[in-house]
Amino acid sequence: MSFGNENGNQETPKSKIDIINMKMKRADEIQIEIDNLVDRMPEGELKQELQSKTKELHELWAEVTELISKEDERDIKKLE
């Protein structure tokens, strides 16, 4: 499996954590795009609901990121 990098070149991830990091980076990019779209919406009930859901999504991503970083720390300690 290969993925395009920032330059459009194909590269093969070296490990599962590389793949996870690449997917998380893309998810963050999508989240930023969604946030920008919501910011441009006119005020109203739909915008408030979307803002609430995107805040909830941000919190979940923070939890996932923390869990993955803890897993990385354990993997690094195993290699030492």
Describe this structure in words.
This protein has one domain (15-79). It has 2 helices and 2 strands, in the order E-E-H-H. The model has no long low-confidence stretch (mean pLDDT 82). It is elongated. The two termini are 29 Å apart. With 80 residues, it is mainly alpha-helical. The protein has a two-stranded antiparallel sheet with strand order 1-2. Helix 1 runs antiparallel to helix 2.
Keywords:
single chain; 80 residues; mainly alpha; 2 strands; elongated
Summarize the topology.
Layout: E1 3-4, E2 10-11, H1 16-40, H2 45-79
Antiparallel strand pairs: 1-2
Concise synopsis of the structure shown:
This protein has 80 residues and is mainly alpha-helical.
Residue-averaged pLDDT: 82
Query: Which ranges are low-confidence, i.e. pLDDT below 50, for 5 or more consecutive residues?
Result: none
**Total helical segments:** 2
SS content category: mainly alpha
- The total domain count is 1
Strand order in the sheet with the most strands: 1-2
Instruction: Summarize the amount of helix as a percent range.
Output: over 70%
